[in-house]
Recover the amino acids of this structure.
């Protein structure tokens, strides 16, 4: 059934629909606005409401982080394929300015990154790419900068081939 649905409407569109119903995102008000068909460009937003507002009336830091948490991992998994292990390893967030309204983040990966990962892992070694995404408000002002370190390695079966 899932395979048929994926072929019918497309994997990116199905993922966007699923993420819209994912309880943590639904509860925090995170909306996946766009996933490109090749999973190299993703856009998300999060409005400010009573359930993601902190004590001083701005975006709760945990919600800011959760809105960007899974996307680099998903993008690499989709672009590298089933022969790779991709995990989140570490993250940091630098809060620059208060998020007083809807905030936005855009994720991009390119051939240069994918080629570097393939080169670094070709011999079976792990590689820890460090990626960054910025969170902006509606006026384009920087609200937070999130750094992600991922763990990428060829699966054992692929290393032996």
């Amino acid at each position: 059934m899932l395979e048929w649905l994926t072929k019918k409407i497309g994997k990116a569109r199905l993922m966007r629909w699923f993420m819209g119903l994912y309880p943590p995102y639904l509860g925090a008000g995170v909306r996946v606005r766009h996933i490109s068909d090749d999973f190299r460009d993703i856009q998300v937003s999060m409005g400010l409401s009573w359930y993601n507002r902190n004590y001083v009336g701005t975006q709760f830091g945990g919600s800011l982080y959760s809105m960007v948490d899974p996307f680099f991992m998903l993008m690499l998994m989709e672009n590298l394929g089933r022969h790779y292990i991709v995990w989140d390893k570490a993250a940091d967030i630098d809060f620059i300015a208060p998020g007083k309204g809807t905030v936005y983040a855009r994720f991009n990966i390119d051939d240069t990154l994918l080629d570097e990962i393939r080169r670094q892992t070709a011999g079976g070694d792990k590689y820890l790419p460090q990626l960054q995404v910025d969170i902006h408000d509606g006026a384009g002002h920087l609200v937070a900068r999130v750094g992600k370190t991922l763990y990428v390695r060829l699966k054992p079966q692929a290393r032996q081939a």
